[in-house]
Amino acid sequence: MSKKILILTGDAAETLEVFYPYHRLQEAGHEVHIGAPEKRRLQFVVHDFVDGFDTYTEKPGHTWEADVALADVDPADYDALVVPGGRAPEYLRNNPEAQRIVQHFFAQDAPVAATCHGPLILAAAGVLPGRTSSAYPELAIDVETAGGVFEDGGAVVDGKLVTARAWPDNGTWMKAFLAVLDAA
């Protein structure tokens, strides 16, 4: 059954963590919208791992139009939420509209997928207490500080919440999310 899904993101989101779920969910027959702080062209980034670096590197990625501004999102119009990572969650977590949207999906016990830095928004929205969540491993402290239980995995399922570490987990993350979505 086709569902309507919102991807909550913004500038500096990880290209692969936006595009993989966007196209994979469309391929499965779902309607997918990109919600961002403003309805405009977004600039995504590419994070990669380079030998000799203590952390990932960042390069400009693709651009893409947002379908809807977060202030105009009625979350009741959507069946599920996807929160990609990259650096976008670092500033989106402070956005009251992003928090409102996330809180709605958790209050409705609707399917939510988050990866990499995406759980930072879940933490800021206050929905992680008692939940098990993956994230970029360096964010374990953020998940735990927000009252969650960190699990270092590529497809961590806690009820209708499906989380992953980063774009190398895209296949297992979306496979698990599609199973949750199909069962919802």
From TrEMBL:
This is Peptidase. Transmembrane segments: none annotated. It comes from the Bacteria. Belongs to the peptidase C56 family. PANTHER family: DJ-1 PROTEIN, DJ-1_THIJ_PFPI FAMILY PROTEIN. It comes from Brachybacterium phenoliresistens. NCBIfam families: PfpI. Residues 3-178 form the DJ-1/PfpI domain.
